[in-house]
């Protein structure tokens, strides 16, 4: 791509708000749609929710890796003709990536996530279920996670561990939780964080 001047970073606050709203919308819509699709193949609700959670986590991981690769290439390209300090170059790179979303090959990330999940020993084997059936959820989360990396600071998710102590500042309890239990049995949806601060709470199931 020719070296063109990047746009000045404007409206970052509104862009951040839109991305956070999109994260909430995916939780409310695409997540439930993915669960409905998976229930055709898996009877156990816990397994279905674990699959969706892992899909979200792996989608963020794949998108961040793809963003890192794109960022290196763009930085090398802009660095040739850019006149400014390292800080302004970093901002220019993020602005350029945010304006040229076609640099991201989301199909490659979706394929990577599906393959990773098919190899996950905690999930049903590929012979029982091909996780390509929830590729729409994976695609939406990948695109969102990629866009979140263009913010300063970037938005990310917090990774949970089964058996951890329930943290009311990070999670809501699912409706079928044991509300007296102090430990997380499994995770339904990850919390969204910004520079270590929880922006949107996740969801977990607690059991004794």
From TrEMBL:
Chief place of localization: cytoplasm
Pfam name, any one: MIEAP
InterPro entries tied to this protein: MIEAP, MIEAP_C
Cellular component, GO, one term: mitochondrial outer membrane
Cellular localisation: Cytoplasm; Mitochondrion matrix; Mitochondrion outer membrane
Highest taxon of source: Eukaryota
Location of the Mitochondria-eating protein C-terminal domain: 16-206
GO biological process, one term: mitochondrial protein catabolic process
Keywords: Coiled coil, Cytoplasm, Lipid-binding, Membrane, Mitochondrion, Mitochondrion outer membrane
Transmembrane spans: none
Family statement drawn from the similarity comment of this UniProt entry: Belongs to the MIEAP family.
Identification of the protein by name: Mitochondria-eating protein
Chain's gene name: Spata18
């Amino acid at each position: 791509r020719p070296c063109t001047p990047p746009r000045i970073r404007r409206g970052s606050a509104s862009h951040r708000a839109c991305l956070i709203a999109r994260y909430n919308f995916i939780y409310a819509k695409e997540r439930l749609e993915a669960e409905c699709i998976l229930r055709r193949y898996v009877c156990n609700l816990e397994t279905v929710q674990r699959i969706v959670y892992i899909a979200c986590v792996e989608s963020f991981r794949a998108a961040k890796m793809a963003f890192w690769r794109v960022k290196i290439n763009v930085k090398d390209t802009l660095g040739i003709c850019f006149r400014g300090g390292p800080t302004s170059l970093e901002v220019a790179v993020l602005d350029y990536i945010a304006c040229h979303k076609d640099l991201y090959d989301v199909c490659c990330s979706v394929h990577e996530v599906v393959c990773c999940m098919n190899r996950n020993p905690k999930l049903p084997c590929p012979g029982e279920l091909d996780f390509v059936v929830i590729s729409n959820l994976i695609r939406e989360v990948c695109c969102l996670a990629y866009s979140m990396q263009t913010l300063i600071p970037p938005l990310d998710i917090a990774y949970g561990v089964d058996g951890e102590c329930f943290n009311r500042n990070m999670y809501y309890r699912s409706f079928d939780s044991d509300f007296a239990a102090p430990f997380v049995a499994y995770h339904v949806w990850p919390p969204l964080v910004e520079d270590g601060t929880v922006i949107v709470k996740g969801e977990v199931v607690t059991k004794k």
